[in-house]
Specification:
The protein is an alpha/beta fold and about 260 residues long. It is built from 6 helices and 11 strands.
Length: about 260
Amino acid sequence: MSAPLHASTRTSGGKSTDEGQTHEHRADHTVEPTLLRVENLLCGYHATPVVGPLSFHLHQKTFMLIEGANGVGKSTLIKTLIGLIEPIEGSYEWFIDRPMLRFVPQTRTLDSLLPATVFDVLATGLHQGGGLASIRIRIDEEQLLSALDTVNLLGFENHLFRELSEGQKQLVLLARALLGQPKVLLLDEPAASMDPGHETETMELLHEIKEQSGLTIVMIAHGSPPARSVSNRIMTIDREGTIEIQECLATCPPPA
């Protein structure tokens, strides 16, 4: 069993804690187990801050939406929380094993010329570990087809991944992530290339999966009404670095 994913740095003196402070607005409800603890986390590149400092806890069965304009650090925060970027200051700690944390990137981060079928792309979701250990997992065709059925793409398994629409590619990546039966799913603008109708369908699908499996979801989106309609927690980051977290009893209303 792998150890929980965590990182921490020593906070340097001289930085105001008021700048970029996190403000949480909570609603009373039954508290689920904590899966993530973030304390005074400052994220960025090459010691240059992009977002933070921020502090919050993430509980099981939460659907947390991260909103904000381009360039405010939404993706930087996600990449820090999955270990791709070292934090500048502060700390975070996941209270789940690493394989139970799955990330769904934007399709533009993938090689558009990759000569792989949908089945090939899905099969990589069954690989855990590295080196020879990652290729010893037997491919379960029924499991792959079931994952495609979950995202309403059954029948596309032999299509070339690069020939799908951007929205379909995003759904394949979602299906791949779900193969590992994760406890937490992090998504970077999964509906960015979808029309409003397909975006609404995808948000409803994510909500249904969360309700049925107890999955915890953290998702980046740009002021999306369909995303807000299925979220029960919203983190908003503005260009001044102010971070606010709104927590709702059910789902969050549209912005005023």
